[in-house]
User: Which sequence fits this backbone?
């Protein structure tokens, strides 16, 4: 199976995943719910608004007609209007998604790096002092609900020592003055911005060279990132440790030692890569977890990203926003899983037989 | 000159729930330069523990006591971080299971090149002085994970693969272990030894997992290594016939002790210890003519519950009262032929 | 189980202080909850009613009178935490219980009968594994709960079960495939026992221990997940106290009144820790491969 076929198959599977999700949602909103129009219009809506929504979504037609329009709307980018913000859902997502993407990616890199190192350290001396300390730490941290960790950091480092700001992705004054990054787009044939980059506070400030805005954005991201890193902390540590211990027992490690390699070379050249393989398969799950964690983290820190937006939509029962965000998050997760799977093929030659 | 290996009063203990259990019990063994010595015993006789202790690769729950002099230096007390100085060009090991003894995520050539680098580094040490080796330095593959590993396999690696008679060595060098057969992998392991040119090679059941024709090839390659490079080989096996084909001397182990030691000819044709006789008797077809297969009654003892006296006495048909109380020691019966048995 | 085996088991359970701590935490919470839900004993636990407004002592910081302080309306936070415990402790049992039940049913049949049943069950489970499960569950709970304030707890539980069953289905199937190959099942088949009977008498009992271990480990996770649902208002409707919701409400009183959010959050953490420690202890007993490895 070639790489292209593989990717095509995965994309097709991703398509089915989204269809499956849409089916569940459609069943709940349009069939199971006693009054679908209220769900789509929001609980606070007036009679006239409900009427209007019922018309737009063809809610008086048979269910298959409703389903046709529902699916067509999703795939033509007509994701409805948020009753809360009174804006098209798609434009809201365009504004909020990059903020969260940036935050979660930073947290992801730090989390993976930190947990891997701790896993290796634990495996070097199982049940030693370092291992025990690490184990106690992550067992405790894992059991803390995400908002408690956020709260603790907020109380100590924002309200207590005033080391870091307590809310927002960037100082609003700096955020208003920093220009969007623009570049020459050969496809459009002119200089334009790109929403995905321009709405990432740290990256955009870096690209346009606005250092005040950059440092402000970084400072605002510190506490949310730390919270995300600590969210579900220890899963990778445990996995890396167990697989490292398993790998160190393997014959090929004895071969490497028998060859006269130094202990460092044995660990880092032979053992580490093999022991990271099982952990690597979980990268997609870890990233998905961070995106979910951003809901709580962004709410506590008023970090205006997709997580904050989804959280507000949950609290106000803003159905169009929820469904739009859910589809988009699903797409992001599917893509990240695809990247992980292709990357795995490069790490483990045994799975590379096909391509 | 000093012997390549001199083991004296070596004990290997494993930690169990309540106490330490000894798998190797006071073994003395010396191996001269270029000598091939066979170590024979059933599983659980301590032969593998002896092999691992010699190369200082015992698992974490085991400890060695006594002396293991490699090239005149004791390695038992050596901190494990310095053990790598003795391994490689000093001594190396080939394992039983060829399917798992190569790193699955590294190309064959990279694993072979490591041997070249390891040998070169050993040359900086006084004790491993010999002719110079030239190692062309390519890009360091150590920190790369992707296609840049596809640098052409080094000349030495290909040459070593040719030496172990692998067909199309260039292509094999560029492969990953899972693309090779068991026999090919074991030959890669031997190619590694050819590159290291070690003074001592410990081969733990290197042919057990292979089919008969491949076995013969691997054995002849090991002998070639010994002949060409003057490498001493400790050949560990449960199969006294295989050992007989390669070894100049044979040590028979039982319950962690060497019970018989002597020139291969003498041990095979004139076995003294009842256990050795049993081993030879249990070979199908009979080694000495058309006798029917003789089984050794009973099973190897549990190292946690060893009998007193001679450890073989519960299974020995010649056992006397003395055997149940008095420990045995090696006695020289003929020239260089030792046995530990109260019959003599 | 022989005598020496059971003493080994006991020594592992009690030799490990972490397991003891986990069990102790859970027992303490259960006792506290039992006392609080039995009206005559309530005052042994808390001095105030969870719903009594007292603006005179609003935003009071933790003291002997108000162990965890009071909220903006002067309600005693300790009393509200205690009153919230029944829901928060019951939910992991209900959600995990239902998920295990569904998983056991589907997984056992898929694994034992194979064929298209297995294919279908596995594909659907795969689909669910590809969903961003937490966000999906929150969305489902919000859609269902939008117009049904009184049923939000129920809908949240349903949403958690919807994303929870695939894991247990896969686990059960994998275990069944293993058990199917074991000699005693082979022997039962050879002696002509019916498939259903074999599943009931041989397969399910063997599955049970593994399922219990994972279920216990999962309890803490579900507890924390549900607290996030409550945090976003998808739990019991006010004025019924909910730990997660109290944390959310308390955020609006920061930085002055920190105890309003902090103590409910801490309570959740202690409960989750109890489940986690007890679960890992159980795993050590039932899965010797992992003993001492963590």
Assistant:
């Amino acid at each position: 199976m070639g790489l292209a076929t593989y990717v095509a198959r995965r994309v097709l599977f991703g398509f089915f995943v989204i269809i499956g999700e849409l089916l569940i949602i459609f069943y709940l909103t349009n069939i199971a719910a006693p009054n679908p129009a209220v769900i789509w219009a929001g609980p606070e809506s007036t009679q006239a608004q409900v009427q209007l929504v019922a018309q737009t979504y063809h809610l008086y037609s048979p269910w298959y007609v409703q389903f046709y329009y529902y699916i067509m709307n999703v795939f033509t980018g007509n994701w409805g209007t948020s009753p809360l913000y009174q804006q098209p859902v798609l434009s809201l997502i365009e504004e909020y998604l990059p903020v969260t993407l940036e935050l979660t990616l930073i947290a992801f890199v730090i989390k993976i790096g930190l947990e891997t190192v701790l896993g290796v350290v634990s495996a070097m001396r199982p049940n030693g002092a370092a291992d025990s300390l690490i184990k106690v730490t992550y067992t405790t941290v894992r059991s803390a609900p995400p908002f408690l960790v956020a709260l603790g950091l907020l109380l100590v480092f924002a309200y207590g020592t005033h080391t870091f700001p307590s809310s927002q992705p960037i100082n609003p004054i700096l955020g208003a003055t920093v220009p969007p990054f623009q570049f020459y787009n050969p496809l459009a044939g002119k200089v334009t911005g790109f929403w995905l980059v321009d709405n990432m506070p740290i990256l955009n400030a870096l690209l346009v060279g606005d250092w005040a805005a950059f440092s402000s954005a970084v400072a605002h991201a510190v506490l949310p990132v730390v919270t995300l890193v600590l969210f579900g902390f220890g899963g990778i540590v445990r996995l890396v440790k167990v697989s490292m211990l398993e790998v160190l027992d393997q014959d090929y490690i004895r071969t490497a030692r028998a060859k006269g390699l130094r202990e460092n070379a044995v660990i880092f050249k032979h053992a580490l890569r093999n022991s990271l393989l099982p952990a690597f398969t979980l990268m997609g799950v870890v990233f998905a977890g961070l995106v979910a964690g951003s809901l709580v983290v962004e709410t506590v820190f008023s970090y205006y990203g997709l997580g904050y937006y989804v959280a507000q939509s949950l609290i106000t029962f803003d159905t169009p926003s929820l469904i739009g965000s859910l589809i988009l998050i699903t797409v992001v997760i599917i893509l990240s899983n695809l990247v992980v799977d292709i990357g795995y093929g490069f790490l483990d030659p045994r799975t590379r037989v096909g391509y | 000159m000093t012997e390549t290996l001199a083991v004296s009063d070596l004990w290997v203990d494993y930690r169990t729930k309540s106490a330490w259990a000894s798998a190797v019990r006071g073994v003395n063994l010396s191996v001269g330069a270029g000598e091939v010595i066979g170590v024979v015993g059933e599983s659980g006789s301590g032969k593998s523990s002896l092999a691992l202790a010699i190369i200082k690769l015992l698992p974490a729950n085991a400890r060695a006591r006594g002396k293991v002099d490699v090239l005149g230096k004791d390695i038992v007390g050596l901190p494990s971080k310095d053990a790598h100085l003795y391994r490689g060009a000093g001594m190396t090991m080939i394992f039983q299971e060829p399917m798992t003894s190569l790193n699955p995520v590294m190309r064959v050539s990279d694993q072979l090149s490591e041997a070249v680098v390891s040998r070169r580094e050993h040359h900086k040490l006084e004790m491993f002085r010999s002719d110079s080796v030239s190692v062309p330095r390519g890009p360091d593959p150590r920190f790369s994970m992707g296609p840049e590993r596809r640098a052409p396999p080094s000349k030495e690696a290909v040459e070593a693969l040719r030496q172990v008679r692998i067909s199309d060595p260039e292509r094999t060098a560029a492969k990953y272990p899972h693309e090779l057969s068991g026999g090919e992998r074991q030959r890669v392991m031997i190619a590694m030894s050819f590159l290291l040119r070690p003074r001592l090679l410990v081969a733990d059941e290197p042919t057990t997992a292979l089919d008969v024709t491949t076995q013969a090839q691997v054995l002849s390659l090991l002998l070639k290594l010994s002949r060409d490079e003057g490498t001493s080989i400790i050949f560990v096996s449960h199969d006294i016939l295989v050992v007989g084909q390669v070894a100049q001397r044979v040590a028979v182990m039982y319950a962690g002790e060497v019970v018989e030691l002597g020139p291969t000819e003498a041990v095979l044709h004139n076995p003294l210890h009842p256990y050795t006789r049993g081993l030879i008797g249990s070979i199908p077809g009979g080694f000495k003519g058309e006798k029917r297969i003789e089984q050794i009654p009973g099973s190897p003892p549990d190292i946690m519950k060893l009998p007193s006296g001679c450890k073989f006495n519960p299974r020995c048909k010649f056992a006397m009262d003395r055997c149940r109380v008095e420990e045995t020691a090696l006695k020289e019966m003929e020239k260089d032929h030792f046995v530990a048995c109260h019959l003599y | 189980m022989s005598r020496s085996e059971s003493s080994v088991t006991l020594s592992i359970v009690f030799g490990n202080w972490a397991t003891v701590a986990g069990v102790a935490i859970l027992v303490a919470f259960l006792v506290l909850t039992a006392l609080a839900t039995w009206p005559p004993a309530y005052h042994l636990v808390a001095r105030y009613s969870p719903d009594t407004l007292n603006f005179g002592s609003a935003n009071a910081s933790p003291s002997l009178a108000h162990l965890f302080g009071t909220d903006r309306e002067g309600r005693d936070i300790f009393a509200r935490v205690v009153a919230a415990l029944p829901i928060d402790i019951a939910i992991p049992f209900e959600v995990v219980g239902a998920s295990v039940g569904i998983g056991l049913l589907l997984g056992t049949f898929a694994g034992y009968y194979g064929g298209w049943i297995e294919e279908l069950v596995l594909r659907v489970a795969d689909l669910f594994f590809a969903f961003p499960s937490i966000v999906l569950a929150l969305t489902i709970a919000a859609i269902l709960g939008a117009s049904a304030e009184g049923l939000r707890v129920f809908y949240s539980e349903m949403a958690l079960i919807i994303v929870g069953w695939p894991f247990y289905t896969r686990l059960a199937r994998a275990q069944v495939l293993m058990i199917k190959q074991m000699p005693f099942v082979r022997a039962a088949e050879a002696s002509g026992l019916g498939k259903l009977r074999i599943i009931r008498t041989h397969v399910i009992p063997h599955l049970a221990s593994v399922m219990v271990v994972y279920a216990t480990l999962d309890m803490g996770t579900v507890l924390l997940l549900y607290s996030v649902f409550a945090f976003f208002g998808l739990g019991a409707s006010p004025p019924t106290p909910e730990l997660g919701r109290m944390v959310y409400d308390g955020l609006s009183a920061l930085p002055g009144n920190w105890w309003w959010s902090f103590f409910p959050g801490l309570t959740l953490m202690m409960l989750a820790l109890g489940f986690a420690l007890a679960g890992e202890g159980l795993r050590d007993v039932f899965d010797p491969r992992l003993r001492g490895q963590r």
